[in-house]
Structures are given as C-alpha cells and as structure tokens.
C-alpha cells in the first residue's frame, strides 16, 4: 500500500510537469528511492490510481443494500471534495491510456472489469451485468462532469435523478 503523503503529493498537483524530484522532496525521500520502488514516474502514477481505486472498492455497500440506495451511498462517498484531486488524476491517466499510451493503456480493462468483479462479489452474483456497467458509466460520467465544472449542485441533482430512475425501475443489479 502506498503512503498517503505520496498519494497526496501527486493528487494535489495533478500530473502536469511535476518531476519525481519535486514529489520526492514533498514526501521526504529521494527521486532515486521512488524510481527504485516504482521504476518510473508513470508507474508511480498507476500505482497511485490503483491504490485509490482499491480503497474506493472497499467502500462498496453490502449485498443487502437496494441498488438505488447502493448507488446513492457510493455517490455520496465519491463526490466528496477531498477526493476531487484523486479523481482528476484518475481521468488524466485514463485519458492517456485511452490514447494507447503505455503504461497507462494497461489500466483500461481493469478500470471496468475490476469494478464489475467487485460489485459481482459484493452482490453474490445477483446484479445484472448491464446495469452494473450502466451504474459505473453514470458514476464516471458524473465524476468527470464534477471535476470539470465543480458544479456540485447540478451534478448532485443528476445523481439524484439517476437514483430515482433506478428506484422506480426496481430492477435488481
């Protein structure tokens, strides 16, 4: 697991032009030590994204939660302003991967499959895969909107509308 100081050092400033030396100074180590542990700056970024995703997956509601309520609980957690820098970092890395840039392209299958597998595990296989994917897509779309606009009120209203749609549909998953 990564040290919070290291995660915060990158999340606070985004990827930009920040060097390993700058990050190492912030967290009280050397750039050589970071290279020794991660191999490259890009591998460090992926390690940070992986760790933040792992922590978010650990917060999934249990299997007794209704899908609409589960979405609302996850949204309330993910939309917290303290997570915004981490979400920006995720989308920066994700976009680089979508362009085929290595090593970021490696994160793409897991960015969906990992969540699908975790929700499937938590729901003990009762969730509809199409609805799981839709929930993930809505969540990511709303988060992207939120990091781009900082329109908490508008994005929260859209999340509530999705929750209400799920509740009215009453479909499992």
Give a short summary of the structure.
By secondary structure, this protein is mainly α. It contains 9 helices and no strands.
Model description:
- The chain is mostly helical and 173 residues long.
- Helices cover 72% and strands 0% of the residues.
- The chain has helices at 4-13, 20-27, 31-38, 41-57, 67-78, 84-98, 108-122, 129-149, 152-169.
- The radius of gyration is 17 Å and the shape is elongated.
- The model has no long low-confidence stretch (mean pLDDT 88).
Series of H and E elements: HHHHHHHHH
Q: Distance N terminus to C terminus?
A: 31 Å
**Overall shape:** elongated
- Strand percentage, roughly? under 5%
Strand-pairing-aware structural class: mainly alpha
Summary keywords:
single chain, 72% helix, elongated, mainly alpha, 173 residues
Ordered list of secondary-structure elements with their pairings:
Layout: H1 4-13, H2 20-27, H3 31-38, H4 41-57, H5 67-78, H6 84-98, H7 108-122, H8 129-149, H9 152-169
